[in-house]
Design a protein that fits this description.
Rossmann fold; about 210 residues; 9 helices; single chain; disordered N terminus; about 45% helix; alpha/beta; 7 strands; seven-stranded mixed sheet; globular
Length: about 210
């Protein structure tokens, strides 16, 4: 994750929960069904879970409450502090990112929500290749994030955001690395995953890859 994106999360830490749970303003649709999205990720996870982008710990808590062992990875110090206060000693949260995390431990599921778009498609491919080598047969990647069915849909989303006066959302769409389903499907299949995509709202899809 680039420094510019990390700065955003450090500034966002205090108001993050209000944004994702309040469903207000121009990001209302992006976070529509937020709790259900987290539940969907939990329901598709098993065993030892590595979570990228813990943020304030909302998904982490649900994973733990479901009886899963979690190792949390979060590069933002303010986010880690909020998550640690929320979760107590129930989970270890490590300073790291999609590429930098403990590899000596056995992992069954990699999970993430609202974070993978901070990697370019080339970086996404590099990350998924790495995860594929660490997972045994049946291991999973379960990510929920904004992505689009085609480049046309992506461009239409930018136009619509501008027409609605959602300038911050439009800027995010134009400057961050939102991918398309065909691209991410090819990356996963090339690394030996069976892939399923489930639409969560107008922006977010649940991506599940099962290692063969």
């Amino acid at each position: 994750m680039g420094r510019e994106f990390l700065d955003v999360f450090e500034q966002w830490a205090e108001s993050y929960d209000e944004t994702v749970l309040g469903h207000k303003g121009e990001y209302k649709e992006v976070f529509s069904g937020y709790r259900q999205i987290l539940e969907s990720v939990v329901n598709r996870s098993y065993g030892h879970v590595i979570e990228f982008g813990v943020g304030t710990g909302n998904l982490t808590k649900k994973l733990i409450d479901n009886g899963l062992k979690v190792t949390g990875i979060e590069p933002s110090s303010p986010m880690r502090k909020i998550a640690e206060a929320k979760l107590g000693s129930t989970v270890k949260i490590i300073d790291g990112d999609f590429f930098h995390f403990p590899e000596i431990i056995s992992v069954d599921t990699f999970v993430s929500t609202y974070a993978f778009h901070h990697l370019s498609d080339l970086e996404k491919a590099e990350a998924i290749t790495k995860y594929g080598k660490l997972l045994s047969k049946g291991g999973r990647i379960v990510f929920a994030d904004t992505m689009f069915e085609s480049e046309e849909d992506y461009n239409n989303a930018i136009v619509k955001a501008k027409e609605e006066g959602f300038h911050n959302l439009a800027n995010d769409l134009e400057t961050e690395y939102y991918t398309t389903i065909p691209v991410i499907r090819a990356i996963l299949e090339n690394n030996g995953f069976i892939v399923l995509f489930t639409r969560c709202n107008s922006f977010v899809w649940l991506m599940e890859g099962v290692k063969q």
